[in-house]
Specification:
Layout (H helix, E strand, L loop, with lengths): L1 E2 L91 E3 L26 H13 L7 H5 L1 E30 L6 E2 L21 E6 L5 E4 L8 E3 L8 E3 L8 E2 L2 E2 L8 E3 L8 E3 L8 E20 L7 H5 L4 E8 L11 H16 L5 E21 L2 E8 L4 E3 L9 H5 L1
Antiparallel strand pairs: 1-4, 2-3, 3-13, 3-15, 5-13, 6-13, 7-12, 8-11, 9-10, 14-15, 15-16, 16-17
């Protein structure tokens, strides 16, 4: 690894024709801008101390510059710098790069063994405990019916929940620049590696993560395009005058028929952003005059999940998706194959549909790992009697989550107030 040489090529990079930047000490700008040789032979400009205000009064009204107006960093014009091999289509707005193709296995693995699950029914006491927890989660539900409610029946049953998770990686490249503070740029002279040639791995599988890094050998130096390598710019707040209109008196010098105490009757105040100098530090290079360009790679790992629930009459699928049960079948690998021979046809069809969907849903991402499983979700249908009302509700999953839309003691007043 070696550093890019930084020879001294003479005076600072000149401003545009007709600009009012003061000439450098001891000389004038050359008649023609220096011709920068291809990167990385560009010579960075020496450190610069901002000049005082040298601009003539601008023929514009001060009122067009709002108080506190500042200029942020700007992007360089298109085509103003050399392209890097392998990243010629990369811009400052970024873009995702499609991964290289990967062959899909042609033969499915043998059928996986499935476990038989023995479900223990809930007792009436456990049902009332689950109901009490359900009421405690709702501020407008009264607990009175729990004691007086008669549990007439508890009918155990089960349904199946199929889950498919696909773990993917996307890589985005974009040009970036930052002020160059004089540190050496390490480069081996070799072309930069391709976006998918750099070895980057996630810390954990099936966890969302984002990581950024500089692409090796993509760094180069250029003069700041925003200030023309001067390090400072005309203050937009005061148009380079060093003073701005007084707000309290509206630049009249008089306030409530008396001399304005803020500006002393002059109608202007010292410009706050530039402290009266008429110049501000360039926001793009932060006064360093030179910018380091590089290609930034952003790797993003995401988990894409789909679930399918075998419907239970009277019970919304969303209630089952939120609970867990016993895993009866599962598999994990680079690619997974649909479950076959499952006793529930709906699960087998859902597995076939979702696995096929996940193979083509993210063309700009690389599939790193897949997993799927089938859970048997315990469901208890509870018959009850409260006063003259009879009905049913459900207790679902290992969490014993209650679905009871007709709970008899509900107060809607607090819900309306909330």
């Amino acid at each position: 690894m070696s550093g890019i040489p930084v020879p001294n090529l003479g005076p600072p990079y000149p401003g545009p024709a007709g600009s009012s930047y003061p000439p450098p000490a001891g000389g004038h700008y050359p008649q023609q801008p220096p011709q920068y040789t291809p990167q990385p032979q560009y010579a960075p400009q020496p450190q610069h101390v901002p000049h005082g205000p040298q601009y003539p009064p601008a023929p514009v009204k001060q009122e067009v510059y709002p108080v506190g107006a500042t200029q942020g960093p700007t992007a360089p014009p298109a085509g103003s710098f050399e392209k890097v091999e392998g990243y010629r289509d990369t811009g400052f707005n970024g873009g995702f790069v499609a991964p290289p193709s990967r062959a899909v296995p042609t033969a499915p693995p043998p059928d996986l063994p499935r476990m038989d699950v023995v479900q223990q029914p809930l007792s009436r006491g456990e049902v009332k405990e689950a109901l009490a927890a359900f009421v405690a989660q709702h501020c407008c539900y009264g607990s009175g019916p729990i004691k007086d409610m008669e549990i007439r029946s508890v009918v155990p049953s089960a349904t199946f929940k199929y889950t498919l998770d696909t773990f993917t990686e996307k890589r985005e490249t974009k040009w970036k620049f930052e002020p160059w503070k004089g540190d050496s740029l390490a480069t081996s002279g070799a072309p930069p590696p391709g976006p998918w040639d750099m070895p980057i791995t996630p810390k954990h599988l099936f966890q969302k993560e984002t990581r950024t890094l500089e692409v090796p050998n993509s760094q180069s130096l250029r003069p700041c395009h925003d200030c023309q390598a001067h390090g400072d710019k005309r203050c937009q707040h005061c148009a380079g005058r060093g003073r701005s209109s007084c707000g309290p008196c509206g630049a009249s010098g008089v306030r409530q028929q008396e001399q304005c105490g803020r500006c002393g009757g002059t109608g202007t105040n010292e410009c706050t952003p530039c402290h009266g100098s008429g110049m501000i530090t360039c926001p793009t290079c932060r006064g360093e005059r030179n910018l380091k360009y590089f290609v930034e790679l952003t790797a993003t790992w995401e988990v894409h999940s789909d679930k399918y629930v075998v419907a239970t009459p009277g019970l919304p699928d969303e209630q089952v998706r939120e609970v867990s049960g016993e895993t009866v079948c599962q598999a994990q690998g680079l690619f997974v194959w649909p479950f076959t021979g499952f006793p529930e046809d709906q699960v087998e069809h859902a597995s076939q549909h979702l696995v096929k969907k996940h193979q083509t849903s993210w063309p700009l991402a690389r599939l790193l790992q897949q997993r799927h499983d089938v859970q048997q979700i315990p469901i208890h249908t509870v018959g009850y009697r409260y006063k003259e009302t009879e009905g049913t509700f459900f207790v679902c999953g290992h969490e014993k989550k209650v679905f009871f839309p007709d709970y008899p003691a509900r107060c809607c007043c607090c819900c309306v107030l909330l």
